[in-house]
Design goal:
The chain has five helices and 20 strands. The protein is of the alpha+beta class. The strands form three sheets. It has a six-stranded antiparallel β-barrel with strand order 3-10-14-13-12-15. Strands 1, 2, 16, 17 and 18 form a five-stranded antiparallel sheet that branches. A four-stranded antiparallel sheet has the order 7-6-4-9. β17 and β18 form a beta hairpin. The protein is elongated and about 130 Å long. The N terminus is likely disordered.
Length: 348
């Protein structure tokens, strides 16, 4: 009787009234029932209604980078203005590079020496190879060949050392790895920093676009997937969401789902569903708590005005149904959600 009555086309839901309650409970006629009473009724029809989910969420930066030095030295200059946008490659800090320039010069000298020694070793080997057996023993030829190989290896080694020295010199200017907003520097000019230190020099955050992680219970996920599999829910091709901010304002713009999440939290039993939103004016700030709403799809259900139904002490939704014999009976309903615009419950 719970769901079969609701599946009847044109089923009638009676508003709660004294006379209806008396008939439904089979109470004996009394003075109140002797008088004619007007009882309002609502005709409920099964129709296609949107399946909308409202979830709590938290904003997460699209990109978030902590800038740390890769070489040590004294901060010589801070090259950016905190709070302003920086692009990829923009300089942020400059470290005193005198020792690194000296290392590059030393590496260049080693390369020059190796390049000068290589032709000498090459000539010695060529001469020994041509005169092998005529003044040069086989051992001397092999020694000349080894000397040539060592000269070539030395040249390659010095070139690699020069390249690394030049790379370290380039690291003395710290540049932005992403586009975003740079935070206030945690160091001042004259501070000594070390390579790979634990404390970051600044943080760069990209918040346009921005991620919003919404948490949904795994049991609800299973219920929706079951409804889609059984055909009770017609899923949308693209899931789009809207946001309500902490102050109650509705954010202008919709987001698209990035991933439905791959893990269920062992502590909360929830799954994280990630959406991405355009945030050109940086209204949504990373870490901000929001409330997201997105439509999963549509389903066949009845829309019942809230004034028709009541909640029992157990929290279940109940209403009085008028049967074919014009008598009312209280039944328990299975509500899907409350749709606020028409002031109705959605009954699956």
């Amino acid at each position: 009787m719970k769901r079969s009555v609701w599946r009847m086309a044109g089923a009638i839901i009676a508003l709660t009234g004294i006379g209806v309650m008396a008939n439904a409970q089979g109470a004996p006629p009394g003075p109140m029932e002797a008088r004619s009473m007007d009882v309002g009724v609502v005709v409920a029809k099964r129709q296609e209604v949107p399946r909308v989910v409202t979830l709590p969420g938290r904003a997460v930066a699209f990109q978030d980078v902590e800038v740390r030095p890769r070489v040590g030295g004294v901060i010589q200059e801070i090259l950016y203005t905190p709070g302003q946008e920086v692009e990829v490659g923009d300089p942020l800090f400059r470290i005193d590079d005198s020792s690194y320039r000296a290392a590059v010069a030393s590496a260049q000298a080693n390369v020059a020496t190796a390049e000068a020694n290589l032709p000498v070793a090459q000539a010695a080997y060529d001469r020994a190879d041509q005169l092998s057996g005529r003044g040069y023993t086989q051992a001397e030829v092999e020694s000349a060949r080894a000397g040539l190989a060592e000269a070539k290896a030395t040249l390659e080694s010095t070139k690699a050392a020069l390249e690394y020295a030049q790379t370290e010199l380039s690291w003395t200017t710290l540049r932005s790895p992403i586009a975003g907003r740079a935070d206030v520097a945690t160091v001042s000019v004259g501070d000594l920093v070390t390579a790979g230190q634990a404390d970051e020099l600044t943080t760069i955050v990209r918040s346009d676009p921005i991620y919003v992680d919404m948490m949904e219970a795994s049991t609800n996920i299973l219920s929706v997937r079951k409804g889609v599999h059984e055909g009770n829910i017609k899923q949308n091709d693209v899931l789009q969401a809207t946001l309500t901010l902490e102050n109650g304002d509705v954010y202008r713009g919709t987001g698209k789902m990035v991933t439905p999440g791959n893990y269920v939290s062992t502590t909360t039993g929830t799954l994280t569903v990630r959406f991405v939103f355009d945030n050109p004016h940086h209204i949504i700030i990373p870490g901000m708590f929001v409330r997201g709403k997105f439509g999963i799809g549509t389903m066949q259900a009845y829309l019942v005005p809230q004034r028709v139904a009541t909640r029992s002490n157990s929290g279940k939704l109940t209403a009085y149904i008028v049967g074919e014999d014009s008598t009312a009976q209280q039944v328990t309903l299975e509500d899907a959600e409350a749709i606020r615009t028409p002031g109705s419950f959605s009954m699956g």
